[in-house]
Prior knowledge:
The chain is α+β, with helices and mostly antiparallel strands. It has 2 domains: 73-162, no CATH class; 170-376, MetI-like (MetI-like fold, Orthogonal Bundle). It is 59% helix and 13% strand. β1 (83-86) and β2 form a beta hairpin. The longest helix has 37 residues, at 167-203.
Amino acid sequence: MSERPWNEDIGREREELLEEEQQLKVATPLQLMWWKFTKHRLAVAGLVVIILFYGVAVFADFLAPYPPHERTGYTFAPMNWPRFVTNDEGFTLRPRVYQMDSDIDPRSFRRVYEINDEISYPIEFFVRGGPSYKILGLFETDLRLFGVTHEEGEVFFLGTDRLGRDVFSRVLIGSRISLSVGLVGVFLSLLLGIFFGGLSGFFGGWVDNLIQRLIETVTSFPTIPLWMALAASLPDAWTPLQVYFGITVILSVVGWTTLARVVRGRFLSLRDEDFVLAAKFSGATEARIIRKHLVPSFTSHIIAALTLAIPQMIIAETSLSFLGIGLRPPIISWGVLLQQAQNVYAVSMAPWLLLPGLFVVVAVLAFNFVGDGLRDSADPYSTVKK
């Protein structure tokens, strides 16, 4: 009597294994890659964080409680988080914020703030007010997710800067520039890397030598001085939009070399394969062989390399903007926000000015985790268990 359940469990496990093997045989490469990718828990978590970040960037105006350039009058104000338990009402489902009273310290002549535990204001959702904006560039509105309608009530998740602007709202708006620089820069690097790396690996000979010497020349320069020199060449009369695209082009020009070497190595290993020789003998041109046969054969490796290159672009833009040679106000990016952290006196008064750097760290780690997961799942026909 005790052996029957045990035998039934073994039979059920065998049936499940056979079913999985059958599914693996008929699965597409994309399905196999996805099954392997989902086994990488950090990669899945990183993908969720990236989707969340880009969703916040798209709807930043709606999520930000204040316009990014609005001066609230509270300079270097500390964080004032919403609370569900207050002294005047006890526990409440609607979050409330305490009133912030300010005064001048007679010794240091610094403005200091104190939370008034006796007065609190409710946070309203879907409030209207302030300058209007366009959602997705199409619909103009002044609706915001939350805010405090009372004129003396302020909600500061990350405090304020020296001009009284809400740091949290500026971080949300700045995510658009910092995250889009990585995408645009990587797209340009992709074009340059595939073009030069494909030529180098497919033709070889003097073409390979010329392109490899060019790559070695670019990579021999120290990265930060090269960025500084190229960024300093941008005209001062350029508009913020022109400066943004100029910085993107600079990052792409410097960052295409790594991808080009990856493409060259793959081309060298694939150009003598049977399917490439068959395409040559059938009369296909070199451009068609590269576009239709070689590049699609290692698309997964390119995607993994690009995912790992995006955080490098984000760090590069942040570094240039932090040093004052990249993006400049009134453009808002995470690097521009960190410029205020260069002043030790300002950081000592408002250490929360360093918090935009935390978003850079989280975004970079998320992209690196996703890149590791894509790199592990780049070969869809290796051993995989769904």
